[in-house]
UniProtKB/TrEMBL annotation:
PROSITE patterns: DM13, PROKAR_LIPOPROTEIN. It comes from Petrachloros mirabilis ULC683. Pfam families: DM13. Residues 43-146 form the DM13 domain. Keywords: Signal. This is Electron transfer flavoprotein. It comes from the Bacteria. Residues 1-21 form the signal peptide.
Amino acid sequence: MVKSILLVALSSLFLSLTACTETNIDSSASEAGTMTTEVVEAGTFAPVEKSATGQVVVRSENGRTYLEFSDDFRTSSGPDVHILLDIASMPPAAYANIASYIKLGPLESTQGTQRYEVPETIDIADYQSVVIWCEQFDVVFGYAPL
């Protein structure tokens, strides 16, 4: 009799634990389902003064905007290389007009996949190209029209 009661109690406990686990799995699956992502723009890098190859995608994800460089992205190395958004589809030979671009930050790596967040205050539709630029020498390595 005691064994039967113990067996029933253990079975109930096991079923309760299983139900909790299933609920957690369903909950995380539904949270992942709410993520929205959309490709807004895309472009292919072209060299200017140095080498630059690969693709860039502008992605909107849950209300945030990101630049994503493809795994085949490659560019030359330099001392002070940055990522710019430019209002022109082809960047100028030199950046005398600071008002024509937004500096997103330093280049993380000269090759491979990388991702840069675009500040919320910037409307990506106002920009026509992504530029790889050496600030120290004011040299455009390459750009990708969007």
